[in-house]
Amino acid sequence: MTQEEMWKAVSENDASYDGIFFYAVRSTGIYCRPSCKSKIPRRENICFFDTAEQARAAGFRPCKRCRSDLLDYQPIKEIAERAKRLLEDSFRKRCGLNQELRHLGVSQRRMVEIFKDEYGVTLSEYVGNLRLAEAKRLLSDTNDEIIDIAYSIGFGGLSSFYRFFKNSTGLSPAAYRKEHRE
User: Fold this and answer.
1) Residue 55's CB: how many other CB atoms inside 10 A?
2) What is the CATH number of the domain that holds 18?
3) Cβ 66 vs Cβ 35: under 8 Å
């Protein structure tokens, strides 16, 4: 790979070159991944290395933004995974979920973007899928009253549960139970 190809990858923040080479900035003493979102340095101030170890041996320190010292640094993916676990652990609750998501350190709008990029569905769609799967399981495997099922999966009332379930399956909860019990 030529230095011009590497410079092009750096100037375009091309993540496909991450792990193939690293670049260091002489004026700052820092080395980065090609995908680093820091300000693009001046061409005459950078040098290239095949490995992070070579950059460290040359006296450069890792970037705190792209975490060039770590083998795999994906903070956005980690946030999405934490949000997914939080949703799975608390989808039955009617309130408090938004408050718990705020503790992940990003805005509600940004959280929706991150989650959709990572999993292909919005937070509310994911919670709906979890609730639907649990409702189907409870309807077919238990004798619980439908109203108890509705409350146990996070609905505040029976009418909202019926509307949600019928829109999702085409059947009322009672019809679904009857069809999946026989």
Assistant:
1) 24
2) 3.40.10.10
3) yes
Residues 112 and 144 in one domain: no
**Residue 41 in domain:** yes
CA distance 95 to 151: 12
Model confidence over 16-72: pLDDT tens digits?
Answer: 888 889 999 999 999 998 988 888 889 999 999 998 899 999 999 998 888 777 665
| DSSP for residue 170 | S
Whether the model clears a pTM of 0.85, i.e. scores above it, the answer is no
Range of the domain at 100: 75-124
Contacts for 95 with CB less than 8 Å, ≥ 6 apart: none
From the list 32, 36, 63, 66, the catalytic residue is: 32
Tell me, yes or no, if 63 is annotated catalytic.
no
Cα–Cα distances (Å) from 93 to 1, 99, 139, 145, 162, in that order, read 54, 12, 19, 18, 18
